[in-house]
Amino acid sequence: MQESNERGLLKNIIFIKMLARSFFLQAIWNYERMQNVGFAYIMMPLIRHLYKTPAERSSAVLRQLGFFNTHPYMVSIIMGVIASKETQLAQHGQSDISPESITVLKKNMSGPLAAVGDTFFWAIWRPFVALVAICFALFLYKDGYFREAWFIPISFIVFYNIVHIFFRWWTFSMSYTYPQKAIGIISEIDIQEAIKIIKILGIFILVCALVVYFIKFGLNLEHMLVLLCIFTGTLYLTGRRVSPNIIFYSTIALGILLFCIRGH
Amino acid sequence: MPEIVLLAFIAALISLDITPFGQFMFSRPIVVAPLFGCILGDLTSGIWIGIIVEFVWIGILPMGAAVPADITTVAILATIWGIKTMPNNNAVMVLALIFALPSAMFFKLLDMWIRKINVLVMRWVENGVKAGKIGRVSKGIFIGIVLFFLKAFVFYFAFIIAGEWLVGEVFAMVPSKVMYGLFLSWRFLPIMALGIMFRNFSPKLTSLIDGGKNARK
């Protein structure tokens, strides 16, 4: 009983160490094998626990130094599955698991999971949380100042990281405990549906932000019309895949040109 | 000089969030621009710069092996240059933004060099592990973080000094008509930024405006 408790405690300590180390995945991001050293660093606590001789440890770490590149949050799923396979290999020496199969599994998982992470976290969740924070900012703007300004960056950091950190913890704990079922459970989550809902909410918040901006900063009808033209012009140019840098400099040039023509 | 060292130190520390540590989004423009605005005593300009930079370059994503232009640099440098030249002056903030954007390309170049140097560090780690020194993995991680920090610190230190001088000189030379024009464009930039954001969330809706030829699926 006591031995089982000690084993459980040790497993938890290794779990926490690996989770904490996963934040350093990209510390030596290199052009040759990308996040390979970061991944080996994550696996070190487990390798030290599983293997006792320097030769065995060295060989297990070398296995993790192959090419590896994925989304930094998605590594939590991969490290859980690989940790489980490494444990099986070390403790049971199962014939169906070879060191090569672990390397192949790691490579095969990294690409598709990176695509999911890029699509959800970078392209949808981060812009959405930024949009919510900025919409608050526009509501809080009065008489040339943002009231309760501290709330804007803090709300962005808190809302974003609630999902980020929960995702890392949940996916790692699940793939570490149930490696066989983990991918199945994750693939059952309808990410496309979640993206669709967030996009609809995002458009609603954007419309609110636009209305607030027009009310607070539209000085007169002429000024409002200019703002509307800039907004539709931006939509047109982005649709034509014009670089945001060009749109940015063009908007500034338009401001200078309008002032020179109109004089106010 | 101690103020610039302190600003460069904070900027380099926050920049670690971009690649080597965490990705908690402390390095996003909406966070760093208000932070430096608060430190330098002009929070309102900091928030506006954060809003503009966050939204205009929202589509720049670090996918795969690509190294995108660093928008954290744009936000940090524009806020510091603008406020140090003349706080609460919107035209100066636009001027600072104009010069901050090319600087981000230089930061990207430095980042690519560091990633090449990291190959040498990685090989040093690998050779150590082959020789039974698995402790080199942790040392390699530490070296990677120190290299990134030093790169960012030297970059910010040099660019804060150079940019502050440049923005100040240009501000003194620019005709008043152009300055008023910059002031006017300060109010145009957020609405343009909202337009880019709209495209990001609804390519299908916005495709009605450009004829639907380039709608992203």
Q: Can you characterise this structure?
A:
- The complex is a heterodimer of chains A (264) and B (217).
- With 264 residues, chain A is mainly α.
- Chain A has helices spanning 2-21, 36-50, 54-63, 75-91, 99-140, 151-177, 179-188, 191-217, 221-239, 244-262; strands spanning 141-142, 145-146.
- Chain A has a two-stranded antiparallel sheet with strand order 1-2.
- In chain A, helix 4 packs parallel to helix 6 and helix 6 crosses helix 7 (179-188).
- Helices cover 76% and strands 0% of the residues of chain B.
- Chain B is built from eight helices and no strands.
- Chain B has helices at 2-15, 29-40, 43-56, 71-85, 90-130, 136-173, 176-201, 203-206.
- Chains A and B meet through helix 2, helix 3, helix 5, strand 2 and helix 6 of A and helix 2, helix 3, helix 5, helix 6 and helix 7 of B.
Q: What would a concise description of this structure say?
A:
The complex is a heterodimer of chains A (264) and B (217). Chain A has 264 residues and is mainly α.
Radius of gyration of chain A: 25 Å
Query: Which two chains touch over the largest interface?
Result: A-B, 86 and 90 residues
Could you give a short account of the major beta sheet of chain A? 2 strands, antiparallel
- Which spans of chain B of ≥5 residues are poorly predicted at pLDDT below 50? none
> How many helices of chain B?
8
The topology string of helices and strands of chain B comes to HHHHHHHH
Number of strands of chain B: 0
The chain-level structural class of chain B is mainly alpha
Helix content of chain B: over 70%
- What class would the helix/strand composition of chain A place it in? mainly alpha
Return the string of H and E elements of chain A.
HHHHHEEHHHHH
What coarse outline of chain A follows from CA principal-axis ratios?
elongated
